[in-house]
Structures are given as structure tokens and as C-alpha cells.
Amino acid sequence: TRPRKSSYNRGARSNLVKLVYFLLLLLPLLLTCCAPADGLTIDCEVFEDNFDQTAETTVAVGEQFTLTLCSKRHRGYRWSEEGYIDDPQVVQELSREYETRRSPMGGIPGLEHWTFQALKPGKAIISLEHTQLSGRNTLGVYTYRLEVTVQPPAK
């Protein structure tokens, strides 16, 4: 006769599979919560709930920080050519680049990355608008406002 397979092994394997699925689902949350403090990322789903987003961040003089926002270029939308900074003596825009994201399904939003540098202690507001180039704005206009507090460098 053939030896009988233990139901214990099947149960343990099933629990292991469940644990692996749970960890895979939990991984994005863990990565988000533990992201470096020098970067802010806002995905399109956030704008779908509220087209006008505001955030705050605190940085030290000399520190660079990155802002990443979703961009629906595939639908004819663009973020403002230059971010409006109400006090360019406090915060300066260093660079901006667009990242295309690929999917077999196609049509997913890309990412727009801005890098800023804190120049001197104070407060500055960075304002950006995501509008359709044709002016129709069939999806609505997204606005993003980042209130930046720049502190003296740590000693």
C-alpha cells in the first residue's frame, strides 16, 4: 500500500501560501510608510477624491527634496511648465523630469518628478496645476500646493 499523505503538510503549506500572499499585499504599505523623508509622492487616485491637494513638509537649509506627482500626459494633460514658488529666495526648483510607466494594458499615468533645494530659513509655497493643453479639461484641473518650512541647518 502507498503511504498516506499527512493532512498536516497540506495545512502547513496552505498557511504558508496565505502568509506569502499577506506579505505581498502588505509590502507596498510598508514601503510607503518607510519612504525617505526627502520625497513626497502623490498618485492619481488621491486627486480623484479631491482635485485640490495641499501638503506640508519641513526641511533644513541646503537640503534637497523631491516631489513626485502622477501625470496624465496620455490624455493630453500637463503639469505647469514651472512650479510657482511664492518665495524663490527660500526654495529653488533644481530639476524636473517625466517618467513614463509601461503596462501591457496601456494608458496608465506617468510620473512627474521635481527636485527642489532649501536655500534659507523661512516659508515658501509651491503651487502646481495639472491642466489639459487643449483647454477643455474634460477630467478636471488638479492643483497641488506644497507648504515648505525651511529650518536652519542642524548643528
Low-confidence stretches: 23-37
Class derived from helix and strand content:
alpha+beta
Largest sheet: 5 strands, mixed
One letter per element, helices H and strands E, the order comes to: HEHEEEEEEEE
Mean pLDDT: 78
How many strand elements? 9
Short description:
This protein has 155 residues and is an alpha+beta fold. 21% of the residues lie in helices and 42% in strands.
Question: Would you give an account of this structure?
Answer:
The protein has helices at residues 7-33, 44-49, and strands spanning 39-42, 52-60, 64-71, 77-79, 84-85, 91-99, 110-118, 122-132, 142-151. By secondary structure, the chain is an alpha+beta fold. The N and C termini lie far apart (77 Å).
Key words describing this protein structure:
alpha+beta, 4-stranded mixed beta sheet, 21% helix, single chain, 2 helices, 5-stranded mixed beta sheet, 155 residues
How would you summarize the topology of this molecule?
Blueprint: H1 7-33, E1 39-42, H2 44-49, E2 52-60, E3 64-71, E4 77-79, E5 84-85, E6 91-99, E7 110-118, E8 122-132, E9 142-151
